[in-house]
Design goal:
It is a single chain. This protein is mainly α and 134 residues long. It has a single domain (14-133), classed as Hemerythrin-like (Four Helix Bundle (Hemerythrin (Met), subunit A), Up-down Bundle), CATH 1.20.120.50. It is 77% helix and 0% strand. Helix 1 runs antiparallel to helix 2 and helix 1 packs antiparallel against helix 4. The longest helix has 30 residues, at 104-133. The mean pLDDT is 92.
């Protein structure tokens, strides 16, 4: 089983957020498969760049929804986004300069972060937004 297999329990109940989460898992799975297949640096860099760009788009979507609906834990949630973005951008810079390689440890970190963040922090946003619609 892939580290990035989508499971129905990851659904948070907000269609736009769920759709974006699924796409994040797809790109991460593509990166994992390319790593396992021994793809070259250029291919891995392209997929990693795609994952980072889509993550930024997703974070902007969530942050916009939180601001629009005055989500009370916005600053904590945004801090989690900013922390991951900083870590991944630092990794990307080291990868592009040849100082780091994409390893199974990185894949496990990304998988763990996604499942923890979606299962905890994002579920709270979706519940909040669902209550706002009710």
């Amino acid at each position: 089983m892939s580290l990035f297999a989508w499971k129905s329990e990851f659904d948070v109940g907000h269609s736009e957020i769920d759709s974006q989460h699924k796409r994040l898992f797809e790109i991460a799975a593509e990166l994992h498969a390319a790593m396992l297949a021994g793809k070259g640096h250029a291919a891995l860099d392209r997929i990693l760049s795609s994952l980072i760009a889509y993550t930024k788009l997703h974070f902007a979507t969530e942050e916009g929804l939180m601001q629009k609906h005055h989500y009370p834990d916005y600053s904590h949630h945004k801090a989690e986004h900013d922390s991951l973005t900083g870590q991944v951008l630092a990794f990307q810079k080291e990868f592009q300069s040849g100082q780091k390689t994409i390893t199974i440890d990185l894949m496990k970190f990304l998988s763990g972060w996604l499942t923890h963040h979606i299962g905890g922090t994002d579920r709270k946003i979706a519940a909040f937004l669902g209550n706002r619609r009710a």
